[in-house]
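Question thread 4412

I'm putting together a teaching handout and wanted feedback from people who do this every day. The idea is simple: show students a protein as raw sequence, then show them the C-alpha cells that encode its fold, then repeat with a second protein so they can compare. Below is the first pair exactly as I plan to print it.
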Amino acid sequence: MNNEVVFHDLGPVHYRAGLRIQKLLEEDVQGANQQHLVVLEHNPVFTLGKNANRENLIWTDKFLDEKRIQVFETTRGGDITYHGPGQIVVYPILNLQQIGINLGNFVRGLEESMIRTTSQLGISAQQIKGDSGVWVRTDNKFSKLGAIGLHVSKWITTHGIAFNVSPNLDHYLGINACGFKDRGVASIASLLGDKAPPVSVVKKILISEVCQQFGLNLHQPPAPTRSVSVIVFREITKKIEILMMKRVPEDGGWWQSVTGMLDPGESLTQAALREVFEETGLKGDLIDLNYQHTFVIPKERLGKPYLFNTEHCFALRVGAPEAKVVLSEFEHEVYEWASVDRAKDLTPWDGMRIVIDRLSDLLKD
C-alpha cells in the first residue's frame, strides 16, 4: 500500500485548466511517481457526464452567455451538474490498488467524508440508496448538498466531489441537477444562513475527513510560482479597445495580453506596471481586478516537470488613446487594438476571456 499523497490547494482554477491539471497528474500516477489530492474552486460552468441527457440543460446558449456560464462535456460518470465559486471541488488522483480499496468503497468513503463534514457543522445529511452524493431534507424533499462524479481508468481515479458551501444556487435553475426534476439543491449557507462558516474553514474539515477515510498522509509541494496579467485598454468614443499582441512564432504564436513573472522582492503592482512598460512602452492607470487563478505550465514548455502558477489579474487604462505602442521584439511580432468580442475571439485562453468579461462588467457599473 502507498498512502503518501501530494496535496495541491489551488484556489480558483478555470475548468479547462482543471482538466489539463488532472491529465498531467494522472500521467504522474501512471508513471508510479506519486499520488495527488487536488482541491480548488471553478469558474461558473455546467458539466455533462458521459451518461448525461442534454435535455437536462434548460437555459439557452444566449442566456448562458449572458450569465457567463460555460458548458463542458466530460468523461466522468453521472448526468449534468454545476461548478462555481463557493463550491469546494476535490479531485483525488489516486491509484485505488495502491491505497487498498475497491471502487464501491471509495465512492461510499467520499460520501461519508461529506456527511461527517456536515455533521461537524451541525447539519444532518445522508446517503440515498441508488443515488450518489450527499442529501439533506429541505421543504419536505431531498436536496443535494454534495455531488460525486468519477472517472476510473486502470484503477486511477480522476474528477471527484463537489461540496456546496456558498455557491450561487440560482445558477442551478439552468439545469435539472444530476438529472433530477423533483429534488432540490442546498448549500451550507442556505442551511445555516449567517452562521455558515467560510469556504476556507469547511475546506479544512472536508480534506481532513477525506484523509481519515482513506488513511492518506498529505505532503505539501512547493508553492506555485507567481505571475501577473494586465489587460491594457483605451476608451474611444465611449467604447473600449483592448491591446492584443501576438507572440513570436518560436514562443507559441498566440494572441495575448501583457503577462509576466514576478521578480524577486517585487510586489504584484510593481510587476504589473513593469511588464506593461517592458512589453508595450505604455503607461496609465492600473486597476486591480481582485481576481487570480491557478494553472499548470506543462513540461513541454519548461523542458522539465510541470509546475503550477498563480496569476493575479489587472487592467491598465491608457491615459492618451493615441499613445504609441512599442513592442518587445523578442516577445511579440504584431499588435492590434481590438473590440471586446474581437479580443475574446483572438485569445486561445479561457482565463483571458473571463478576465475581459470582468473588466467589461466593472466598466459598466
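The second pair follows. I'd like the answer to focus on this one:
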Amino acid sequence: STTARCILRLLEATSGQVIFRKLIDGSYLTEEIDILSVSEVELRELRSDLQIVFQDPVSSFNPRMTVGAAVAEQLIVNSDMSRSQRDERVRELLDLVGLEAGHARRYPHEFSGGQRQRIGVARALALHPSFVICDEPVSALDVSIQAQVLNLLVELQDELNLTFLFISHDLAVIRQVCDEVAVMYLGKIVEQSSVDLLFDEPVHPYTQALLSAAPVANPGRQRSRTRILLEGDVPSPIDPPSGCRFRSRCTVGRDEAICREVEPVLKTIRAGHLAACHFPETRVVI
C-alpha cells in the first residue's frame, strides 16, 4: 500500500524512480515519464491516467457529499466539462458498475459495502485512466460480495483495456484476478513471476511458506499438506537485519554466512521468473 501511494505521489518517495509508459494519443507508441520528477502541473495532467480504488469504501467518501457529487469531483477539478456533461458522465459511470442513475442523489451511508466499493470504482474510472491501483479493494467486504466486485473488475479490465496494480493478502483472490505477481517482504520484492508459475513452482522460502498457509477446499488434501512454519517475529522495517531480510525466519539459509552478510538482489531463475534469494529452490506446495 505504501508503494502504491508513492507511485501516485500521495506519499512522496525519498529516492528512486517510478517510470510510467504513457500511450501517445493517436498511436501505439509510448513515452516514458518519471512520475517522481514531474512538476505539480504535469502531475495533475497525469491524474487522468493514474487512479486508485481505496481499501475502505466507507472512509474514502465524504459523508456530506452525494455519491454523484463524489464521482463528479474529479471531473470538476481535472476537466472542462459543463454541468450537463458531468451529470451525463456520472450516469454513464454508475451504469457501468451496475448501479442506477437515481443512486447519484443518495449519500454513502445509504449503500451497502459492496455498492460503496462499486461507486469507488466508478469514481476511479471518471477520467478514462489506463492504470488503476486497487488497494485491497475487497478485504473489507463479505465473501459473497467480494466475488461480485472481483467479477466487475475483471469485466471492466477487458472492456476498457485497463492495467490493474492489485494489492492483496488473499492468495485466492490474487490467483483469480492477476496475471503477474510480486511477493514483498519488509518492503522488498522477493519473488516475481506469472501467477501460474509462482503458485505452481515457488522458489523463495517466504513465498513457499505463504502458499503452504493458504487453505484449500478439499478436506482430504488439506489434512495431507505440509505446513511450512516460520519461527520468530517479523523484524522492524526501520532496522532490518543485515544481509537477507528474511534470514532470521528462513528455513533454508538461516545459518549461512552469505545470507547474514550479503543482501540478495532479484535475479532470473528461469524465463519470466525472478527471485531475491541466495538459495532458490523449487518446492511444490501441494
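Top answer:
Good format. For the second protein you could add a caption like this: The first strand starts at residue 19 and ends at 23. The domain at 47-178 is CATH 3.40.50.300 (Rossmann fold).
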